[in-house]
DNA sequence: AACCCATTTCCTGTTT
DNA sequence: GAAACAGGAAATGGGT
């Protein structure tokens, strides 16, 4: 195989790995701009960019493909605690499984087994972890390639970041940007199956899940903010001054809960605004686990309706890592879109909205044109 | 650091 | 009366 086709194959595989989910906005870095971190740093980088960097669990440092049953169990336990999932509702019929079997499960299978909330969480985590190790392997291939073809002409177009190759580097932001963009999940978290389905019937066990209460969620920096009630916030702030209107500070900013996060990517995934999230639910209804969350009222006109408003809000909250999202709050954001003409008002019809002239990507022709 | 943007949060009042 | 809708006000947090 020629060096050019070899490089092409490596990058194609990498792209397929990272974009296989058909995200609505796959920010595809071009060959001319992609920054390639040195292989030796890759795992480290993905650790840093992962929100679970502080979890030194064995499973976290291992490709899911190689997980033992115990690793799988630890991983599930971790997510049960993280989502404060009521473990007692889990069916014990899901017997133990090892990593290879787990990796064969489809998203639907996971959702069937663990439900919408935990299932989605597990699926996302699994896809991310798989991608993390797949990316690592891709870079190994690339490093080998670079050694083998040091004078490959296309290399002048590839930006290999020297700062990263230098162990004294300090700034990862540019890499995080790329890595963030390369996230395997579609932004909405209900992407089509990227884990190939196979025979396995999805046998997972939950022998001894630690109860959700047994440990504080502080173990996960990303989910370190406990659920405070309105009362709590009011009391806490009321001592300083009367709780004004507006948004209270996020607890994750509290240093007590925000330890060791200086290396974590500080920005939420970009590129998906609320209206895009809504649009994607509408144009990919098959990705909602047969939940009819929304529907078109008038496809041509862009009129749509929320069927399960709170479920959509929860999904939006999940995406924004905000478990307290509600339809009431989501709808306020929707109403702000009227002024910007991203949405047009639909009077007199509850839960019905209409895309405006400043929204894109929802028209049938657009979708067909761009293969969305 | 300061500013902007896109929300998020809260709230009061109105409509369905 | 409950659920939505409206929209003001203020706050957050990522990005520049």
Automatic annotation (TrEMBL):
Keyword check for DNA-binding: yes
Location in or out of the cell: Nucleus
Region Disordered, residue ranges: 187-265
Ranges of residues in domain PNT: 46-133
Main location: nucleus
Residue intervals of the ETS domain: 272-356
Any one GO molecular function term: DNA-binding transcription factor activity, RNA polymerase II-specific
Biased composition (Low complexity): 195-214
Source organism superkingdom: Eukaryota
Keywords: DNA-binding, Nucleus
Family the UniProt entry places it in: Belongs to the ETS family.
UniProt name for this protein: E74 like ETS transcription factor 3
């Amino acid at each position: 195989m020629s060096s050019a086709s070899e490089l092409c194959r490596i990058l194609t595989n990498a792209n397929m790995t990272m974009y296989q989910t058909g995200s609505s906005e796959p920010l595809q870095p071009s060959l001319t701009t992609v920054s390639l971190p040195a292989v030796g740093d890759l795992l480290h980088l993905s650790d840093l960019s992962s929100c679970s960097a502080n979890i030194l669990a064995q499973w976290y440092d291992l490709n899911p493909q190689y997980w033992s049953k115990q690793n799988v169990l630890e991983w599930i336990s971790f997510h049960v605690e993280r989502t404060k999932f009521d473990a007692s509702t889990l069916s014990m019929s899901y017997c133990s499984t090892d990593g290879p079997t787990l990796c064969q499960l489809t998203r639907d299978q996971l959702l069937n087994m663990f439900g919408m909330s935990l299932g989605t969480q597990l699926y996302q985590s699994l896809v991310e972890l798989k991608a993390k190790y797949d990316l690592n392997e891709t870079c190994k291939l690339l490093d080998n390639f670079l050694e083998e073809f040091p004078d490959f002409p296309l290399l002048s177009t590839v930006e290999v970041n020297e700062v990263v190759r230098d162990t004294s580097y300090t700034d990862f932001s540019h890499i995080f940007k790329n890595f963030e963009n390369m996230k395997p999940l579609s932004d909405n978290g209900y992407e089509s199956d990227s884990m190939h389905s196979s025979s396995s019937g999805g046998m997972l066990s939950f022998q001894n899940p630690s109860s959700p209460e047994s440990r504080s969620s502080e173990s996960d920096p990303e989910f370190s903010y406990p659920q405070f009630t309105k009362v709590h916030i009011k009391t806490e702030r009321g001592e300083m001054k009367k709780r004004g209107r507006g948004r209270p500070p996020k607890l994750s900013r509290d240093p007590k809960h925000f330890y060791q996060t200086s290396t974590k990517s500080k920005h939420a995934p970009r590129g998906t605004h609320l209206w895009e999230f809504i649009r994607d639910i509408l144009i990919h209804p098959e990705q909602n686990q047969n939940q009819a969350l929304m529907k078109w009222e008038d496809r041509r006109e862009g009129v749509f309706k929320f069927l399960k408003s709170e479920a959509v809000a929860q999904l939006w909250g999940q995406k924004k890592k905000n478990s307290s999202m509600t339809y009431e709050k989501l709808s306020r954001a929707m109403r702000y879109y009227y002024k910007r003409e991203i949405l047009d008002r639909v009077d007199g019809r509850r839960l019905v909205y209409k895309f405006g002239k400043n929204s894109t990507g929802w028209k049938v022709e657009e979708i067909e044109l761009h293969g969305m």
